[in-house]
Design goal:
Among the domains are: 2-55, no CATH class; 69-135, no CATH class; 155-242, Orthogonal Bundle (Arc Repressor Mutant, subunit A); 250-399, Leucine-rich repeat, LRR (right-handed beta-alpha superhelix), CATH 3.80.10.10; 400-521, no CATH class. The protein starts with a helix and ends in a 42-residue tail after the last strand. With 938 residues, it is of the alpha/beta class. The relative contact order is 0.03. The protein is globular and about 90 Å long. Helices cover 17% and strands 22% of the residues. It is built from 18 helices and 40 strands. α1 runs parallel beside α2, α5 runs parallel beside α7 (123-130) and α9 (155-163) packs across α11 (196-209). The strands form seven sheets. It has a 20-stranded parallel β-sheet, covered by helices on one side. One of its GO terms (biological process) is defense response.
């Protein structure tokens, strides 16, 4: 793994972020790999431990302080008086401010108290909280503040919160798994058993609202999938759980352990013999979680156990049937190949999770007896149990339901009585369903809680698909009535028989369809018109489809009234996307996003998209691009345009696009942006809302239009980036002066890279410019006019401009300079002269392949006061003042690949008195003759 990572990172410039590091035991191994990255790579680490920062050799260390009172009050006020909360009266505000003071600047405590007060309406309720003994503590005991919030939780939610202590600190907690364990312990109170999952989800949301759970991550449907628990909150949960929770590791002595009150036990001991002390474990034990292999006889006698998690075991004892109260069983093992038949006697089992058992090929046949099983998670390689249709309580089968033959009890008909299935249902091996009666038997229309349905056919080749008629099977399908998302993969038939199914109007809530890898289809009818509720449609990987749209038998007006996102990808032979001649003028009235990718042969496409905000075109035929953009007046809402890898395309953007904000053009043949307006008024151009212009690898792009960058016509423009446009000559000057003019008062960023034909540039007057990068523009032979007028400049990179010298008008001399410049990178220069006193904010300086650098004046008081990073590579420059200008703030000095570096002179070594504190000094310690280039003490 290390070697593969090293190869991927080699010579690449990286920004790596290691979040919430607790230990740096493997840091040395990682650092060896990272050394192969390109120069300028950075690593950012966040940690709660100062020793981790020290051991990792942090160059810059930032310690977070307590939140200020004003920020705490703002956070509290937003939570407490937010929507649905009490009115912010003077009395309540006064009490609230006192509560905030007692939170001692800890955001977690502020959020928790704000959430608590949101549910309190009267003055008395607020006053009772303020005077509570838990808030009247000495010091900053935040746990007491959190406990006050805990005390006001509903009783069942309190139990659920306490149980979270079973997870290690900083562990990722999967929401579904947590709720299922709550259910196993009867923590969830519900009058209707079918709604227990929903009630559990409400409990989970309550804990999130009170900040007891945080760092939520969302799934593809924007539902919470996982979360974490703050250390302080975890401490509170452990404190409340008390002796009922016991966590044993190899560091915990097992002698004289008091198990009398233990109800929940987590163990991670290294040796099986160390579990011998569990034989006399109290009958009160309800949870047993093992992080290490454990002998079967260590747990088979836990007769009252409800939650059991086993790890890395080779076999499961047949005595597991003794655990008659077991409701949750999770096994993770890469060596487990079978389960005992006796597991089918666990009649109260609600959750079986064996998804992390890839060698488990099949399940015991008698598992159909587990009529209380609600959630079944199996590995993709595990064959579904025979007659699984007897599991009437089943809510979810994850990740995939692989169908077998109907006569073997593995067919689609087994779904007949599983009407409690909910959420996402994935059905694979649909090619095995050849009889329409089996589809009808499945009664999919009665699965009212299935909101996402995926059907996958698996045929070995295209010919196999053409030899079988699947139309009767498809027409017999009656889809779940509340379906929201429907996905069809690898459908092998030559005709799309789904249109009749969609046209009957029964799927009122269907908003998304994905159609993928249907290798024999040659044309696709206008699904976007057939299903009026549709909001998102994706069609991809269609090897033979030449026609999209065309004839439609629907009697409704041919319009997609709700469609917002439309994507066509990897349709290499697609030639035409047509709308029926009877279609209304605005077939896509609400379409906001259009993506067309890898449709190389597309010639014909519609162009009327009045609401579209974003268009992405990648590897699309030149005629197709021209067709899509042929009516600019119908693209009045367009805000983002990306055209990429259409090499034969010569794009013309000369008409008015009033809303266009971002343009990204890359790898096309040519680009014409010259406005064709008859008036051609330089004060008004055709892209008035443009904020970002990014053009790369367009060989025939020559210039931006007249007046394009004048402030009166481009007041919103903030970023211009032009890369590898060999014929780009610059910015056409309105006044016709000798040097091209670049002027927009709000422009913040200019990046020019490898524009060989660019001979000059005028940046005078760019009062807001913060970043200027000019790289390898070999045609620049005269000065960059107005460089010294860029008072807001923070980042300057000049690379490969061999004849430019910072001298004369453009020298950094007394009375001018860049007071805000923080990063200066100079590469491939002949001569550079800098005035140190005019660079008070400079933090990072990088000099590469530059022959001569002079920093003046050279005095003890006139150094670079903010410089922390100095990097020299390729060629060690001659000149004076470079090293003497290093101040006490310098934290990193790097000299790399400088063959001409002969060590420091005695004069230069004067600055070495300040180098003892440097934590990072990667300089060769000897020259070719073995002579030291640095003082021995350094």
């Amino acid at each position: 793994m290390g070697k593969k990572l090293e190869e991927k990172l080699k010579e690449k410039k990286l920004l790596l972020v290691f979040d919430d590091v607790w230990s740096c035991s493997q840091w040395d191994d990682v650092r060896v790999i990272l050394k192969h990255g390109a120069h300028g790579s950075k690593v950012i680490v966040t940690t709660r431990k100062q020793e981790v920062a020290n051991d990792m050799g942090a160059v810059h260390s930032l310690n977070l302080t307590d939140l200020s009172y004003d920020h705490c009050w703002a956070l509290f006020k937003k939570r407490a008086f937010g929507r649905g909360g009490p009115d912010q009266t003077r009395n309540l505000e006064s009490i609230g401010r006192e509560i905030v003071k007692k939170c001692h600047g800890v955001p977690l405590a502020v959020k928790a108290m704000g959430s608590l007060m949101h549910s309190k309406v009267t003055f008395r309720e607020w006053k009772d909280i303020e005077t509570c003994e838990y808030l009247d503590v000495v010091g900053d005991n935040v746990v007491n503040v959190l406990r006050l919030s805990y005390n006001h939780l509903p009783s069942p939610v309190k139990q659920c919160f306490q149980y979270c202590a079973i997870f290690p600190k900083d562990a990722t907690i999967m929401k579904a798994d947590l709720i299922q364990q709550w259910m196993a312990h009867n923590f969830i109170q519900s009058s209707n058993d079918l709604e227990m999952d929903k009630v559990g989800n409400d409990y989970f949301k309550t804990l999130c609202w009170h900040s007891f759970l945080q760092d939520m991550k969302m799934d593809e449907n924007h539902d919470i999938e996982s979360c974490k628990m703050h250390d302080l909150v975890h401490d509170l949960a452990q404190l409340i759980m008390g002796k009922e929770l016991l966590v044993l590791s190899h560091k915990t002595p097992t002698e004289n352990v008091n198990l009398g009150e233990t109800r929940h036990l987590t163990v991670s001991l290294h040796k099986e013999r160390e579990f011998s002390f569990l034989e006399d474990l109290s009958k009160k034990l309800r949870t047993f979680i093992s992080k290490r292999p454990v002998a079967n006889d260590a747990w088979v006698n836990f007769k009252f156990i409800r939650v059991l998690h086993l790890n890395d075991i080779k076999e499961v004892s047949s005595s597991i049937c003794k655990l008659i109260l077991l409701r949750y069983l999770s096994i993770q093992s890469y060596s487990l190949t079978s389960l005992p038949q006796s597991i089918s006697q666990l009649y109260h089992l609600e959750t079986l999770n064996i998804e992390e058992c890839p060698e488990l090929e099949k399940l015991p046949d008698d598992m159909g007896k587990l009529t209380n099983l609600r959630h079944l998670y199996i590995a993709k390689s595990t064959k579904i149990l025979k007659t699984f249709g007897r599991l009437h309580s089943l809510r979810s089968i994850s990740p995939i339901l692989f169908l077998g033959e109907e006569e073997d009890g593995h067919g689609i008909g087994e779904l007949e009585c599983l009407n409690n299935l909910c959420g996402h249902l994935r059905i694979h091996n649909m090619e095995r369903v050849r009889d329409a009666s089996h589809v009808r038997k499945a009664k999919l229309m009665e699965k009212g809680k299935v909101y996402q349905l995926e059907m996958v056919w698996k045929v070995r080749n295209a010919a196999e698909g053409t030899n079988t008629d699947y139309s009767e099977v498809v027409e017999a399908l009656e889809l779940p009535p509340n379906l929201i998302e429907f996905s069809i993969n690898d459908f092998p038939d030559v005709k799309l028989a789904w249109t009749t199914l969609l046209a009957n109007g029964s799927l009122r809530y269907l908003v998304e369809i994905k159609l993928q890898k249907c290798r024999n289809l040659e044309e696709i009818p206008p699904i976007w018109h057939i299903q009026p509720s549709l909001e998102k449609l994706e069609i991809s990987y269609m090897a033979k489809v030449k026609l999209l749209g065309g004839k439609c038998t629907s009697t409704r007006a041919l319009v997609a009234p709700r469609l917002k996102h439309l994507t066509f990808k990897y349709m290499r032979v697609l030639e035409e996307w047509v709308e029926n001649s009877t279609a209304t003028p605005n077939s896509f009235p609400l379409l906001e996003k259009l993506i067309v990718k890898k449709c190389d042969m597309l010639r014909i496409a519609p162009s009327d998209f009045p609401a579209v905000k974003e268009i992405k075109l990648n590897c699309v035929g030149k005629e197709g691009v021209s067709s899509l953009l042929s009516q600019p007046w119908s693209l009045a809402s367009l805000e983002k345009l990306r055209v990429h890898s259409c090499r034969e395309l010569s794009l013309t953007l000369t008409s008015t696009f009033p809303s266009l904000k971002e343009i990204y053009i890359s790898n096309i043949g040519g680009l014409d942006m010259m406005c064709s307006s008859a008036n051609n008024d330089p004060r008004r151009h055709h892209l008035p809302s443009l904020t970002s212009l990014d053009i790369k690898y367009v060989p025939e792009f020559t210039a931006l239009p007249k007046g394009f960058l004048q402030s009166s016509s481009s007041e919103h423009l903030q970023s211009v980036s032009i890369w590898h446009c060999d014929k780009f000559e610059g910015f056409v000057d309105v006044e016709g002066s000798e040097l091209p003019l670049l002027f927009s008062s709000n422009l913040k960023e200019i990046k020019l890279w490898s524009c060989r034909n660019l001979e000059s540039i005028n940046v005078r007057g760019l009062t807001s410019l913060e970043t200027l990068e000019i790289n390898r523009c070999k045609g620049l032979e005269s000065s960059i006019i107005g460089l010294q007028s860029l008072e807001a400049l923070k980042n300057l990179t000049l690379d490969g401009v061999p004849i430019i010298m910072l001298s004369g008008e453009d020298a950094i001399s007394d009375g001018c300079g860049w007071p805000h410049l923080e990063i200066l990178k100079i590469r491939r220069f002949r001569n550079v002269t800098l005035t140190a006193s005019q660079l008070p904010s400079l933090r990072v300086m990088e000099i590469g392949w530059t022959g001569n650098v002079v920093i003046k004046p050279i005095t003890n008081d006139d150094i670079l006061p903010s410089l922390t990073d100095l990097t020299i590579y390729g060629l060690f420059p001659e000149g004076q003042g470079l090293l003497q200008s290093c101040s006490k703030s310098l934290k990193k000095l790097e000299i790399e690949s400088c063959d001409n570096f002969q060590g420091f002179t005695q004069h230069e070594l004067q600055f070495s008195e300040e180098l003892d504190h440097l934590p990072f000094l990667p300089i060769q310690d000897k020259d070719d003759n073995g002579r030291g280039v640095l003082p021995l003490r350094i």
